[in-house]
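Model it.
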Amino acid sequence: MKISGTIHQLPFPAKMLIIFFLLALSFGFFSGFRYLKGATNLTPAGIEKNYNGNEKEQDPDEVIFKKSQDEILTVIHAHALSMSMIFFLLGIILLMTTMNETLKYFLLIEPFVSIVVTFGGIWLMWKEVIWFKYVVMVSGIFLSISYMTTVLIIAWQLFFYRPSGSGK
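Modeled.
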């Protein structure tokens, strides 16, 4: 069964369902990104401070304590499960697009690798493998770029892309 290229054939209500799903999903994704920016300042030092604390700092008003094992496991569990579902659903929709197959395969697989590396990296950093904060940052960047690229490709193909020979 061929599903690649079928997104263009969807009826208007199905296209609207997908676009509003993308809008709501992006609202949630970018509000989480905004929280992350505030919590970590999007820096390796901020990532380390967010999970491992900064109890050695002199200013008592600025002290952040290291997350407990229960807290870190809750963060990893919730994010790994929810982001896996997000990228699974996006992947199903992406399968319906017409695009370079190599790029499509990359966008289908990369987010799952980044989820494991990002949240496994957070665990390792919390276990005092401090240099993993750089790996976490890079894999998080890849995850965000994959998300934005996938959403933009799907949205563009829903409303603007016309396959050759479609006459539309």
